[in-house]
């Protein structure tokens, strides 16, 4: 599956199939949350949260790709990510785009 954040794929004529998306809500356990609070005092990367967000983006992207495959897509264009805090220590990641096939 080709994923791009543009509305075209160079050298390809595309036919739109529809909007596809994937989402997940991730959280870290209380130990990581306490560690992050302490790190907030002294500064630095919150590596536990960085890893959590990487995992969340990967899960959401896989879900979007699955939805595109069900439509017969060969690619997804205009791919965009959005995040939002759901509760302290938990975040939603959503990815969406337009499923297309080649003419």
From TrEMBL:
Taxonomic superkingdom: Bacteria
InterPro entries found in the cross-reference section: UPF0145_dom_sf, UPF0145_YbjQ-like
UniProt xrefs under SUPFAM superfamilies: YbjQ-like
Pfam families membership: YbjQ_1
Protein family per UniProt: Belongs to the UPF0145 family.
Protein's UniProt name: UPF0145 protein CLNEO_12360
The species this protein was found in: Anaerotignum neopropionicum
